[in-house]
Each structure stands twice: as C-alpha cells, then as structure tokens.
Amino acid sequence: MKRQVLLIEDNDQNRYLVTFLLERHGFEVVSAADGPQGIGLAEQRTPDLVLLDIQLPTMHGYDVARSLRELSSLEEVPIVAVTSYAMVGDRERALSAGCTGYIEKPINPETFVGEVEAYLARPPSTAPEGSR
Ligand code: MN
Predict the structure, then answer these.
(1) Taking the model in full, what pTM does it have?
(2) CATH superfamily of this structure's domain 4-121
C-alpha cells in the first residue's frame, strides 16, 4: 500500500515541487491550500505523515498543528512543519504546537524525500514530545 502524505501548503510552486518529489518516490500525496481544508482531509484520510507549511492564509500553521493533534486518529502521525530558514522562532513554536519536527525552506530536492522518510521511520515514542 502506498504511503500517504497530506501536504498543507498555500504556495502553488512549493505544492507542485513537493508533490512531484514525493510521487516520484512512490508516495501518494493529497494536498490542501489552507488549514481548514487540510484538517478536513486529515479527518477523511488519516495520512501516514503531514507536511505543514507554517505561513498559511486564514489559519496559521501553529493553529492547524494544534487542531490536527486534537484528532484522535492523528495522535501518532508525524506532523512535519515546513518553515522558512529565516524564521528561526518558528521552529520552537511549531514544536510546542505539536509538530514532530521541521524541514527548512527552500526545499532542497536532493535531500527532501530522505528527510520525510526519516520521520516515517522513527517510532513515535523515541523522543519526548517537543524535544527535537
Ligand atoms: Mn505559505
């Protein structure tokens, strides 16, 4: 069965790039352009991993992360924030909002899929919440 990634990202180019890279490596990608749509998809699909842009319209990425963590079906699912390299404070805030970790923007096509794989390979209980 294909592993399914839910991508919540408002930027068309980033959404295209991430989808392309993941599909090329055999993932199924479902995507949403804002938080409320992403939360709806998460409820319907229970993805294996969520990639969450932090700077989103209508609902901030931190709030999206908190809402996703409130879904019992998503308790154990890695939520990986995608944060701008320049936004240093975003990382800590993303972790305290329930994200498992983060990947920096701009996306590096050479390393991106490997980073996603690493989050999927990690048993959920290896690290205390927010320790990364
Ligand atoms: Mn954005």
Answers:
(1) 0.91
(2) Response regulator (3.40.50.2300)
